[in-house]
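Schema walk-through. Below, the input block comes first and the output block second. Nothing else is stored per chain. Lengths vary across the set, and this one has 118 residues.
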Amino acid sequence: QVQLQESGPGLVKPSQTLSLTCTVSGGSITTHYYYWSWIRQPPGKGLEWIGYIAYSGSTAYSPSLKSRTSISRDTSKNQFTLQLSTVTPEDTAVYYCARGDHYYSDYFGQGTQVTVSS
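--- output ---
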């Protein structure tokens, strides 16, 4: 069974870069034809897809976040990483990593709270 675990700081200052890592077990992030996404849920709002990195290493991002987002991977550690730059309090959310793309995900991490505050 695939398991995902998010890790990273829970508090980020405004204008800084948010960085989170997802460690995957029970399956390889290079296995055809899986996609690995970051998704967030701001307080009181619905889920928002941020972007994915594919089994091939190609990436895709939400148009609304594309200019500030970068997703990369370390295949030796079976991890993928989110970087969101120039954060504001509006980026406060629970951040999830998941297996899937912007249409459908079947496995999710437990989520990690990230608060943007000075």
